[in-house]
Write a structure and sequence with these properties.
Layout: E1 6-8, E2 11-13, E3 20-25, E4 30-36, H1 40-57, H2 62-78, H3 80-91, H4 95-112, H5 115-118, E5 122-128, E6 131-139, E7 142-146, H6 154-165, E8 169-173, H7 180-192, E9 199-201, H8 206-214, E10 218-224, H9 227-239, E11 243-247, E12 252-256, H10 262-274, E13 284-290, H11 291-306, H12 326-342, E14 345-348, E15 366-369, H13 376-379, E16 386-392, H14 395-403, E17 407-408, E18 410-414, H15 418-427, E19 432-435, E20 451-452, E21 455-456, H16 463-469, E22 471-479
Parallel strand pairs: 7-8, 7-10, 8-9, 10-11, 12-13, 12-18, 13-16, 15-16, 18-19
Antiparallel strand pairs: 1-2, 3-4, 5-6, 6-22, 11-21, 14-15, 17-20
Helix pairs in contact: 1-8, 2-4, 2-7, 3-4, 4-6, 10-11
The structure holds nicotinamide-adenine-dinucleotide.
Nicotinamide-adenine-dinucleotide (NAD) binds at residues 146-151, 155, 173, 175-176, 205-206, 209, 224-226, 229, 232, 247-250, 281, 381, 383, 409, 448, 450, 454.
Length: 481
């Protein structure tokens, strides 16, 4: 069984740490690798390499840096099936979803390859008589990236391609639960021609994170993960005077109105709630449905949920794979018990699905009706295939319910009425909205713009925000005499 290596200064190196963690295939419970829990010293080493590489890399012409990303893009396309399989094996999502994730990651590389235009400055020929001003953009130095288990390729790709093409160097700390894809991303980066020290990986857990947060030579931190860790990372990073973007947890609400195409709404909600085993930061966790159509909507949804295939995501036609770990399955089962105790009505019990008795960490689609905002199952991010339904009298009440959540990542509405869409858009406290779709995750060229406790910072990942985040500006004012 292999123990993964770190990648520092263009070399694969064994960690000096004596601590490792098992990496599981969540569909089978088998151990597939060991990941080193690296030390602070290894962080220091990688930051030193990245700092040295920065001195050269920052001066490489922008089109030349972009050309390396073009090559990288082609390599990712060529290896997309292999990458998707790796994602399914270590994360559990089905192969189709994994292929979608690979595609999303590639789109980030494609967006970043536009660096020569994205990095342009600005100027004004005459700010006063014979006086001109211009803005130039520069990279900032070493960036630290810390990523979650649920998108082992896409989330790292939100960070390192753009950071690197803009002239920065990068140290990635992937999730210790899904570290295999990250190593493959680095191998392909090496093949594409990323120079040594430009892209480094240090595997591990909180010691590596703290090492990055405290290191004086790390200029920026990009974090994606759960809310409490995001808060911690944001506070500790900014206390050390770094700029931090910390994308956090979610409890996304979908609103189903009585004039919606209920069949489409049920299909979309099914996918958004149970796809990727509910382990998406844009998953539908709560549906607020207008009382007059609630029974019909719920009956369609339950029927569709009864028909999903649960199993190993590598197998054909499997829709619902496992959750990430046994502990996470146990936590989810705990929430189902809590929901029952709180008085919600369990209309579909995913504990009874056959797969839930098997060796992998499976939980079938679980649906609670008559959920209220004082329940823990409404409040907490469960991050599993558990959906809460809140019955409301109208759109105003639906928005009021959703806006009570501390989270505000995404929200969706299902309706055919333009006025309702406008009211939803203007009044919903969430950064990513969807109309008649289930998962309104923005593409690479738009910001991934969570609000409230779903995000700490000011500049989001992706879109123009990412160019702002990974660069700094010089303004030069000149008079030619
Ligand atoms: P997590 O917070 O457990 O881990 C994220 C990263 O932080 C990992 O690399 C982990 O090693 C590190 N970490 C964990 N505990 C730490 C600690 N005490 N100190 C320092 N570092 C620590 O998150 P996860 O379970 O891997 O991912 C799922 C979470 O990520 C969900 O809450 C989900 O909503 C969120 N997420 C958010 C977005 C978004 O865009 N807002 C996207 C994907 C996932």
């Amino acid at each position: 069984m292999k123990t993964l290596k770190n990648y520092i200064n263009g070399k694969w190196v064994e960690s000096g740490s004596d601590k490792t963690e098992e990496v599981f295939n969540p569909a089978t419970g088998e151990v597939i690798a060991f990941v080193p829990i690296s030390t602070k010293e290894e962080v220091d080493e990688s930051v030193k390499a990245a700092k040295t590489a920065f001195e050269t890399w920052k001066n490489v012409a922008v089109p030349k840096r972009a050309r390396i990303l073009f090559k990288y893009q082609q390599l990712l396309v060529d290896h997309s099936d292999e990458l998707a399989k790796l994602i399914t094996v270590e994360n559990g999502k089905n192969l189709k979803e994994a292929k979608g994730e690979v595609q999303r990651g590639i789109e980030n590389v494609e967006f970043a390859a536009g660096a020569p235009t994205l990095m342009m400055g600005d100027n004004l020929a005459t700010i006063a008589t014979e006086l001109e001003s211009a803005v130039y953009r520069y990279p900032v130095g070493v960036i630290g990236g810390i990523t979650p288990f649920n998108f082992p390729m896409m989330v790292p790709c939100w960070m390192f391609p753009m950071a690197i093409v803009l002239g920065n160097t990068f140290v990635l700390k992937p999730s210790e639960r899904t570290p295999l894809t990250a190593n493959r991303l680095v191998e392909l980066a090496e093949e594409a021609g990323f120079p040594k020290g430009v892209f480094n990986i240090v595997h591990g857990a909180h010691d590596v994170v703290n090492g990055l947060l405290d290191h004086p030579d790390v200029a920026r931190i990009s974090f994606v993960g759960s809310r409490p860790v995001a808060e911690y990372v944001y506070k500790r990073g900014t206390e050390n005077l770094k700029r931090v973007q910390a994308l956090a947890g979610a409890k996304n609400h979908s609103i189903v109105l009585k004039d919606a195409n209920l069949d489409n709404a049920a299909t979309q909600v099914l996918n958004a709630a149970f796809g990727s085993a509910g382990e998406r930061c844009m998953a539908a966790a709560v549906v607020t449905v207008e009382e007059t159509v609630a029974d019909q909507f719920i009956s369609e949804l339950v029927q569709k949920a009864d028909n999903v295939t649960i199993g190993n995501g590598l197998d054909d036609d499997v829709f619902l794979g496992p959750v990430i770990r046994k502990q996470h399955k146990d936590r989810t089962l705990g929430y189902i018990e809590t929901g029952e105790k709180e008085g919600a009505r369990l209309v579909r019990d995913g504990r009874r699905d056959k797969a839930a008795q098997e060796k992998g960490y499976f939980v079938g689609p679980t649906i609670f009706d008559h959920v209220t905002t004082d329940m823990k199952i409404w409040e907490d991010e469960i991050f599993a295939p558990v959906l809460c339904i809140v019955r409301v009298k109208d759109l105003d009440e639906a928005i009021k319910v959703a806006n009570q959540s501390r989270f505000a990542n995404g929200a969706c509405i299902f309706t055919r009425d333009g006025g309702s869409v406008r009211k939803f858009r203007e009044n919903m406290d969430a950064g990513m909205l969807g109309v008649n779709i289930g998962v309104p995750a923005p593409m690479a060229f738009f910001p991934f713009s969570g609000w409230k406790d779903s995000f700490y910072g000011d500049l989001h990942a992706n879109g123009k925000d990412s160019i702002e985040f990974y660069t700094r500006k010089k303004v030069i004012t000149s008079r030619w005499v």
